[in-house]
Specification:
heterodimer; A: alpha/beta; 5-stranded parallel β-sheet; about 30% helix; B: alpha+beta; 5-stranded mixed β-sheet; two-stranded antiparallel ribbon; 2 helices; 7 strands; globular; 2Fe-2S_ferredoxin-like_sf (chain B); 2Fe-2S-bd_N (chain B); (2Fe-2S)-binding protein (chain B); oxidoreductase (chain B)
Chain lengths: ~500, ~100
């Protein structure tokens, strides 16, 4: 419970903290609120300008009236309740809310952890800040999983999450005629939000079969709220006459300087495009998402155990109390496997109760509320597993690649080059292919192409694990020059 | 002097400059959101293939939307909140 160091002339966050929560989405907000209610002193850190993370992404508080986004959201009542709780604790000084702060690494220290952040709230200045606490909760969420296709690097092709973040964060519609593709329930709220803001959503191309959900009826029946949510989106899509084409994939985008035509095709049972089914659709915007990849940047360097998330990705391994294998380190939300906001809220609350227990705080909630939250976690995890099985990455998706399709966007490495580097068989692995081709060695450090490269060259039975990165966000040497408390062994630089 | 009346009654939208040209924005928008709202989805050229790039992931993960802000290179336009008077330059390539 040492004092946070202020290394850049910031107004001091002088209160010592018991818990640092990284990520202010549903999991982080719920965890911070529960920990604060239990008497802990908490620092809540997020790179965004407002509370909410991606799910409840909002314009910054001071300008919220200028960009109405409330109708694009789900379960705002919970968001408002959590905001009010956090605001009350901020007034008493027990919550230190650090928005616009990018955490670039965490490290173990003698009495807990150091959390290294950069304040980017007043650009172009950057100020380094080091927080110390005996407990850290990583609730950094996830990002869209991408599978390349010819033309996916054309301007106008965005991730589905990117389209949604423009809508929720700034009220901006990225184009007029939009085709969405990929797999998973997330495509539906994106389609609904685009339509609500005046875009024409020409088609939603869902790779999975329409009957896929019915193979796992039990978890669906135990989550009636999810049915209601899905029915709401279905109603919106019907109202705007948005066709959802199942067993269909986006297999190409064409255009000069911006996408003008999207090619779609029916997909066979193995996910390969069926010959003779290709359609050409005029569109200026494409949104693609194949589920999500847990954001483990801060957890990997700490060496916590990982687990197969069951959807082709790797997540933090946690016990029933959301404890990772590293004492004092907790994870909640999508970092433990993608499962949605309701699950993240429950996991955040369970994690906070564990922190209260482990730090022997007096304000621990009773056994019954905890049992209810744990039942909620189990129910929503089962639902997430059913969703993952209903919306898999198609086994033979790479059939729509051509040799000259860009796979690594940063280093502009083609599918042909990746395949040639991987011809020695699955033992080669995506890390060796990275060394041979530079795929995954650019600015994004493989976040965009990693899952695809893994599929192309590695053993598909193994889930994708992102490369261990020491630096979760590039930090200027200037900001670091202020920092006297770098974790030993780190060499923070921007990627080359 | 109707012009003078109009000037006091109509608040001026804040603006930053993109390669010297003013671009108005809605307060709270990121640089990327303001650019996309003006119809621009690409503002950078790749170093190898000289391909146009701009907004892709929208949440700071892909680094496709890099711009220079007030002389500081390699800034993700999707994460930097637009402020009046900022000088944004684009198209410098992706070598940071």
């Amino acid at each position: 419970m040492a004092e946070p160091q202020d290394l850049g002339g910031l107004p001091a966050t002088r209160e010592p903290h018991d818990l640092v929560v990284v990520g202010a989405g549903p999991a982080g907000m719920a965890a911070a609120a529960t920990a604060l209610d239990g008497g802990l002193r908490v620092a809540l850190v997020d790179a965004g300008s407002a509370l909410g993370g991606q799910f409840w992404r909002h314009p910054p508080d001071d300008v919220r009236d200028a960009v109405p986004t409330e109708d694009l959201h789900h379960d705002l009542r919970t968001y408002r309740t959590l905001r009010a709780t956090l605001a009350a604790h901020e007034r008493t000084g027990r919550l230190t809310l650090l928005l616009d702060h990018h955490v670039w690494t965490t490290a173990r220290a003698a009495d807990g952890f150091t959390v290294h952040a950069v304040d980017r709230g007043r650009p172009p200045a950057e100020r380094a800040l080091v927080l110390r606490a005996p407990a850290v909760l990583v609730a950094t969420g996830a990002y869209d999983r991408q599978l390349p296709f010819p033309g996916w690097d054309l301007p106008g092709v965005l991730t589905a999450g990117g389209l949604q973040s423009l809508l929720k964060g700034g009220g901006v519609v990225a184009g007029r005629r939009v085709v969405l593709g990929g797999t998973g329930p997330f495509l539906l709220p994106v389609a609904a939000a685009l339509a609500a803001r005046g875009a024409e959503v020409v088609a939603v191309c869902e790779a999975a079969a329409p009957s896929a959900w019915l193979r796992h009826p039990a978890p669906l029946l135990r989550n009636p709220a999810k049915w209601a949510e899905a029915a709401g989106y279905a109603g919106t899509l019907a109202r705007y006459r948005i066709p959802v084409r199942t067993r269909t994939g986006i297999v190409g985008a064409e255009g000069e300087g911006r996408v003008a035509v999207v090619r779609t095709a029916s997909l066979g049972a193995d996910g390969a495009p069926l010959p003779g089914t290709e359609r050409r659709i005029e569109a200026d915007t494409v949104g693609v998402g194949w589920g999500f990849v847990p954001q483990l940047d801060l957890l990997l360097p700490l060496g916590c155990d990982l687990a197969d998330a069951g959807d082709g990705t790797t997540a933090a391994a946690v016990d029933a109390g959301q404890r990772t294998s590293v004492p004092g380190l907790y994870a909640a939300g999508e970092t433990c496997g993608v499962g949605g906001a309701a699950l993240a809220l429950s996991e955040g609350r369970v994690a906070a109760v564990s922190v209260l227990t482990d730090l022997a705080a007096p304000g621990r909630p009773g056994v019954r509320p905890l049992a209810a939250e744990r039942r909620s976690v189990a129910r929503h995890r089962a639902f997430a597993r059913a969703m993952a099985q209903a919306h898999p990455v198609p086994g033979n998706w790479s059939a729509w690649l051509t040799d000259d399709t860009t796979v690594c966007r940063c280093e502009e490495v083609t599918a042909g080059a990746v395949r040639a580097a991987g011809v020695d068989g699955p033992a080669t692995g995506h890390r060796q292919v990275k060394q041979l081709t530079r795929a995954g060695m650019g600015w994004c450090q493989g976040r965009m192409c990693g899952p695809a490269v893994h599929c192309l060259v590695a053993d598909r039975a193994e889930p994708y694990t992102s490369a261990e990165r020491l630096i979760a966000t590039p930090v200027t040497l200037g900001a670091l020059a202020d920092s006297s408390a770098l974790p030993a062994g780190d060499t923070p630089t921007e990627p080359t | 002097m109707t012009g003078a009346v109009a000037e006091t009654d109509v608040p001026t939208a804040p603006a930053f400059t993109v390669d010297g040209e003013p671009l108005t924005f809605v307060p709270g928008q990121t640089l990327a959101a303001a650019l996309v709202a003006s119809g621009r989805v690409a503002w950078r050229t790749t170093r190898g293939g000289q391909r146009p790039r701009g907004i892709f992931c929208g949440i700071g993960v892909c680094y496709d939307c890099l711009v220079t802000v007030d002389g500081r290179r390699g800034q993700r336009a999707c994460l930097v909140r637009a402020r009046a008077g900022m000088a944004v330059t684009t198209g410098e390539g992706d070598d940071g």
